[in-house]
Amino acid sequence: MLPSWAFAAEIKGVTFAEQAETQGGQPLELIGTGLFTYLVWDAYVGGYYQDARRPRPAPLSDVSRRLVLEYFHAIEAADFAKATTRGVRQNLSEANFAAIEAELSRFNAAYRDVSPGDRYALEWQAEEGGKGRLTLALNDTLLFESASLALANGVFAIWLGDSPARDDFRSQLLGR
């Protein structure tokens, strides 16, 4: 058997494992990796994982998935909260945004400042009967959890929705 790193993806010196598991042990496969550039700066790299047993990609459906982002620069928690609200609002109708606004505020309050090399992981773990668990972790430390699929889809849409932060990053994450 080959070591797990043999099939890892690397971008800008950051490695993403080819396979992972949700916090509940569901298998995930790496769909794609990408570099997010802001103006002229390389801001972060990301890896998008999805349930290995489901058709791919399906980033805004009730399927287990994880988005891992590793940062090259320090970013304050308040800046994450502003960008998250803006990105979710951009991808949802006013009615759908209003329906998750209180839970989104709770999500935004969980953000912490990051330093270069820190990793945020956003995960939706689908469960039987249309239920599931949304989590946000920083460097493997759980910061937030919710049972709201609508919130999960809204937050994942920032990078993977119809109006992503960057189209090229979305395409890279979806393996296109």
Q: Could you walk me through the main structural features you see in this protein, from its secondary elements to its overall organization?
A:
This protein is of the alpha+beta class and 176 residues long. The strands form 2 sheets. It has a 7-stranded antiparallel sheet with strand order 3-4-5-6-7-8-9. Strand 4 (27-38) and strand 5 form a beta hairpin. Helix 1 (77-91) runs antiparallel to helix 2 (94-109) and helix 1 (77-91) crosses helix 3 (149-160). The protein has helices spanning 77-91, 94-109, 149-160, 167-173; strands spanning 9-11, 14-16, 19-21, 27-38, 41-51, 65-71, 119-126, 132-138, 141-146. The chain is 28% helix and 34% strand. The protein has one domain (27-132, 155-173): 3-Layer(bba) Sandwich (Chalcone isomerase). It is built from 4 helices and 9 strands; from the N terminus they run ββββββααβββαα.
Q: Top keywords for this entry?
A:
176 residues, alpha+beta, Chalcone isomerase, disordered N terminus
For the sheet with most strands, the description reads: 7 strands, antiparallel
Shape descriptor: globular
Low-confidence stretches: 1-6
Give the percentage of residues in beta strands: 25-35%
Distance between the termini: 29 Å
What is this structure's SSE topology?
Layout: E1 9-11, E2 14-16, E3 19-21, E4 27-38, E5 41-51, E6 65-71, H1 77-91, H2 94-109, E7 119-126, E8 132-138, E9 141-146, H3 149-160, H4 167-173
Antiparallel strand pairs: 1-2, 3-4, 4-5, 5-6, 6-7, 7-8, 8-9
Helix pairs in contact: 1-2, 1-3
